[in-house]
Every structure is written in structure tokens, then in C-alpha cells.
Design brief:
Order of helices and strands: HHHHHHHHHHHHHHHHHH
Shape: globular
Helix content: over 70%
Number of helices: 18
Largest sheet: none
Length: 398
Amino acid sequence: MAYSTFRMAATLGLLTVVGPFAVDMYLPALPAIARDFDTSVAATQATLTTYLLGFGIAQLVYGPWSDQVGRRVPLYAGLGVFVLGSLGCATAQSVEWMLAGRFVQGVGGAAVMVIPRAIIRDMHTGTAATRLTALVMLVVSVSPMLAPLIGSLLMLAGSWRSIFALISVYAVLGLFLARFALAETLTPARRIPVNTTNMVAGIRVLLSSRSFVTLTFVSGFGMASFLVFIAGGSFVYTQEFGLSPMQFSLAFACNAVGFFAASQIAAPLGTRYGMQSVVRLATAGFALSAVALLILALVGAVTLWVLVGMLVVTNAFLGLMIPTTIVMALDEHGDIAGLASSLGGTLQMAAGAGMITVFGPFFDGTATPMIAAIALCATMAFVVSQLAPKRTVAASSG
């Protein structure tokens, strides 16, 4: 693989990880934030839901905007907004203030999710795009493996506010990276003016595409399962299993290993067996492992190590599923890649926020409600995957 591909993957990965940092790094601090603001678990979890709300809505702006002016300018704007939101969280004096800051963070963070996907589609399709996406996700894997640990260390040294201060600094560094290390990938000849007619026409094309809709919701329910774990995991590990924030960070990192290890073999498997076959295998394994974990929970057989081990297996299937379905959903829509990335991302975040909202009242600091929500997401992903067209993308492309 060419050095330029690795360099692009590193650049896009370091930019994309800005958003996950905003989620993963503050997870160990959720119980402390609840105590400091004297608020409930549900209100504290709402700081994640609010972030996802801003994240989902703003994606509808960045994609079409980048289709018109190119990829870099909207990326600069998003990172700037993200810095403002992070500083707002760092100085929050109430949970309401925190909710507002998280929403602004989400609005800015949407740019570093939508635009890298569109850049990949500008450059590649098929398994070549899956390979680059998997490399980007390998870089992004530093977030769930290290960000909670960094957050725990910052809490030991100071308070949870220093977490958001550090996130602000990283976003500023991301601005410099985008300015000096990222080339424009959308030539002026391929740009599309943003207007209501074009957007409505593009959305109509996407929503009438069976492959786009089904694959988007497969990845959306997969992402929702991970977001459910993010929302409830810190409370489960610290309250039911008595882990410290530092120990939770290590357990959380273990759960992420399966996902990112499996994501690296998605492209080779897609080349050999076909990307559709990879999706079907991954969704079946995802659903079976999640339901098995739920059965263990219902009979009272879930210990800390059972939970961690089963989530490693479950997330491994998720690692095969998500990069493949993201690429396949965008593959047929290169002429509106920005809009497709935006709409797909919005639908994915809506699925995640919806699951957290529905199951939020049932979270009680124990593992079973969280596991039930994950199993439901996995089952829905499997069911929707059976509705996808038999053949949605070529096996390989450059």
C-alpha cells in the first residue's frame, strides 16, 4: 500500500478522533459530574444525548456545504465551533450549562465525522474505500483505548473540567493539521451548488435507494449499541462491579480491542468473499453474541469478566459490520457523497440517541438493562440486513 494512503489514513484518523475524544474521555467523569451538579444519572446521560442531537442535526449542513465549496472550509468551521463548545463545558456551572456546551460540541464535532467519509468516497470505492476506512478506524481506536485512561489521570490530577480543556487544545491542533496536512479532494468541476431543489432531489434519491437506507440503518443500530454501552458502561462498572475510574478505563479499552482488530480484516474478507457476505456474517454474529449475553444476564451469570469477554466478541462483529456498511451505503452516490454522508450520519445518530432515550429510564446502574438495549440493537441490525439488496457494490475499486 502506498505511503500516501497511510499518510491520508493517519491525517483523517487524527481529525476524526476529535469527536470520539469528546465522548470517551469524559466517561470516567460521569459519576463525578452527577455529584458536582447534584443531579440524576438520567440527567447526566442526557449530556451524551444532547451531544448526539447536535452531532446528528449538524451533519445535514456540513455534507451539502462541502459538496458546494470543497471539504476543507467546512472542516475548519466545524473544528472552530467544537473548540467553543468544549470551553463552554469546561466552565459549566450547572447541568443545563453543560447540556448547552455539549450541544455546541456536537454541532462542531459533526464536521469531523461527515467530511472524512466524503473525502474517502472522493478518492476510492469498494474494498479500496473499506481498506482506507479501516485504517482510519485503526487510528481512531486510540480514543476508546486511551481516552478514558487519560480522563481518569486528569481527574486524579485535578477535576473533570481539565478533560474538556484538553479536548479544546486537541481540537485547535486539529485545525492546524487540517490546514497544513490535508489536501482538497473535491475539484471545482465536481462541486454542486447548495439549494433547496438540489438538496430535496438528493435526499429523495438517497431515501428511495433500498441499499442506502438498509445499510445506513444496519450501521446505525450497530453504532447505537456502542452508544448505549458508552451511556451506561461507566455506571455499570463503577456501581455494580465497584471499579475505580482508572479500572473502568482499562475495562473499556478491552471492549474496544475486538472492534478495531476486526475492522482491519473487513477489506480482505470483502475482497475474498464479497462485501455483502461480510455484512451478513457480521450481523448474524453480532446478534447471536449479544442475545447470548442477555440470556446470561437474565439467569444471573454475568460477572465482570463474562461481561468484558462477551463484549469483546460482540464488538468484534461490530468492527466487521460498521466500516463495510458505511462504504457500501455511500458507494453508489459519489456525485452527492457529502449529502449522503450527512444524511447517513444523521440517521445513525438518531438511532443511537433514540435508543439511549428509550432505555434511559431503565438504567439503574446494573448491567442487565444495558445488555438488553445492546441485544435489541443487534437484533434490529440483523433484521434490517436481511432486507438489503443481494448485490450493492462491486468487490473492489480504486
